[in-house]
What we know:
By secondary structure, the chain is α/β, with parallel strands linked by helices. The chain has a single domain, classed as TIM Barrel (Alpha-Beta Barrel). 38% of the residues lie in helices and 14% in strands. The protein contains 15 helices and 16 strands. The chain has helices at 18-21, 56-64, 79-93, 104-107, 118-133, 149-155, 162-177, 198-202, 214-239, 261-283, 289-296, 307-313, 363-377, 403-422, 470-480, and strands spanning 11-15, 97-101, 137-143, 184-188, 244-250, 254-256, 318-322, 327-329, 338-341, 344-347, 353-354, 360-361, 381-385, 426-432, 452-454, 466-468. The strands form five sheets. Strands 1-2-3-4-5-7-13-14 form an eight-stranded parallel beta barrel, surrounded by five helices. A two-stranded parallel ribbon has the order 6-8. Strand 9 and strand 10 form a beta hairpin. It comes from Salipaludibacillus neizhouensis. Pfam families: Glyco_hydro_1.
Amino acid sequence: MSIKGFPENFMWGGAIAANQVEGSYDKDGKGPNISDVVKVVRPEDRKKMKLPFPTTEEVKEALANKNDKDYPKRYGIDFYNRYKEDIALFKEMGFKTLRVSISWGRIFPDGDDLEPNEAGLKFYDDLFDELHKQGIEPVVTLSHYETPVHLALEYGGWTNRKLVDFFERYAQTVFTRFKDKVKYWITFNEINAIMMSPYIGGAFLRDQVKDEDILQAKFQAAHHQFVASAKAVKALHETIPDGQIGCMVIGMLNYANTTHPEDVLEALNDQRNTFFFTDVMARGHYPAYMTRFFDDNGIVIEKDESDEKVLQENLVDYVALSYYMSSVSARPETEGERVAGNIMSSLKNPYLEASDWGWQIDPKGLRTLLNMFTDRYEKPLFVVENGLGAFDKVEEDGSIHDEYRMAYLREHIREMREAVADGVDLMGYTAWGPIDLISFSTSEMSKRYGFIYVDQDDYGNGTLDRSRKDSFYWYQKVIETNGRDLD
């Protein structure tokens, strides 16, 4: 069988997030965001790690704690000062695009400010100018786990309807400022993460919601994000007529544990946990299957009269996703070994290998999921995160032989190529963490994703010097051949 290649205009590149690379968290007028108060998880605590869900008091204590070594996202990898050096390396690899995020707190330090911070706008002006100078197209995420912490403390985060207006003001401000520099946008990073991590995804605090009301609060916050996303879509299309804006989810494929009908039904329901979010933003309305779920769980979404119209009239132009692993669904009483991955856990799939952090590796699942999204929405798709977090060994001569990373990416790219042959309209691929960065889930540095090594350890020690791994040259060849040479 003949296999089609990637389209000639395929957007090869990498993806980073402001909170994981920029550093300078309190410089040039930037206000603290929710990631700036998340502590590092040391290796000895990894097995008992829980996703952050702090109280108001804990956040205030973290803000008062000036020991930045405990909060690695405060210093990142100093991209704020070294972006020209890093972009030059991305250019050397042949990047067509770089996905970045704008830190909301750099533009509006508290989130509810009436006027933007000019120093923050200028930083991104300079960043986008440098990308264009190097022939790299920016893809910009508006909200990547970077909600200003003031909005969590003062308003209860996204549970509060007022954040819709604050976000709309922020979105309109950056669309207007960067309309001639940024064509591709994403509203919320991994918007479905709110169901697993209400603090990171929804910016509300543990003491702001009663335990029995947390599920209600998650869906209410998600609704506010849906409306905010739709209003951003409207503003983008009015401000940048030739621009494109997408939604983005954690791409999760759910296998049934067995052929038992209840396992199959469980897999369907779990798959809908992903599709619910894209259904609303790509189809413009709440899917029928959520009616029973809301009834069974006593959930009532408070909506404005205009919400349904806003959602229906402002559909995203494309669907973006991260993909790291698949999952196994089973009846609640099913026992068996469990594995962790991204911000969720699952029954172990005996047919899959796993990364150093236990994330199960399933390239074929990416092809399957891309086909499912295509069948469902018939919209362009964009794989904006995919990569392998692993321990890297620096040899005496400074080289880093990361064959395991190349093997992981090779198989996922091969399956994307198959998906294109299947008929998937795939816009591009931005590998996660093209340069080593602070891990989202554990705030470690030793969990490395990059083609570029950064000399920094989990405690913030090191020279911050950048060096090329073996995978740097491999990915360079992949891009040069438009995905034809994967060896």
